[in-house]
């Protein structure tokens, strides 16, 4: 069991405690008296019961912890918040050190990004929506910070189905996020990372991430028999929903993904050099190969340590999800089939895939301009 704390001055007032649940690991928020904040704990149990991922539950726990620290600093009961409190909470997240009785909960010099602030507000508003729907509150504070989008109309348009945001509620407290170009790895960088891997397991892991675009939680949930050999129709990885002892599971349901013979060759080398050589009995595909826990399923912490080493050795700012973005970008640029990208990534809504990956490159823009520029040549010099 692990405990995470937040302090106001020298007094510990908040704790997040890891607890075991039917789905693996969940989290509990404790107040300064080491008593559970009951409604927050119930909400986290609700998230666990609807099979939210470990990362999602942890993110929600930390976001709620921020909110309850703010409430404590202002001496406000969470059942008596106002719209102005939500506004002030945003200001507090931007500059918590300005409050005399609050120590900053993030590292000195590191500000909270607009994206994190927006995520925190979303978590808090969903928490209040849960309280209202479970009859813990008479007023739905969720409505305080949401309004109908200006694009919403009473009737659906003909093209309604292609726009996910049409007719949706808008968070009026959303902080403007700077637009960032989606980062991807080059072929040279992928080869450099593969070369920096210390063993065949890590090389196999990197190549699998690159070739499949799987989320790291999905990769860690794989079993050895999830690799399906078929030399006639094509090899596949089969993703399955099930309990995993390392706290991982599928985020968006079961699916099958085609893989190459070269990845199968790496898999064979990994099984021969690691699984068989170390006499590992685990059915998990990726296991620890050093230390006291050899043969146990790898955890998120093992992955973070691996990528920290890779970043140090290559000077490439790499993380597991960067391979997912790279895979999707390469796949779409080669096929121009966004539906297949959606299926491979496991996105439940194609609009998510479109928003992320359907963007013209500079070369696309230049080629298209060369195709149409003659249409604008009305003026001729000398006439």
UniProtKB/TrEMBL annotation:
Domain of life of the organism encoding this protein: Bacteria
Pfam families: Phage_int_SAM_1, Phage_integrase
Family in the record: Belongs to the 'phage' integrase family.
Name of the protein in its database record: Transposase
Annotated GO MF terms: DNA binding
UniProt-listed Gene3D superfamilies: 1.10.150.130, Intergrase catalytic core (1.10.443.10)
Annotated Core-binding (CB) domain residues: 34-132
InterPro entries documented for this protein: CB, DNA_brk_join_enz, INT_tnpA_C_Tn554, Integrase-like_cat_sf, Integrase_catalytic, Integrase_recombinase_N, Integrase_SAM-like_N, Tyrosine_recombinase_XerCD
Tyr recombinase domain boundaries: 180-370
Keywords: DNA integration, DNA recombination, DNA-binding
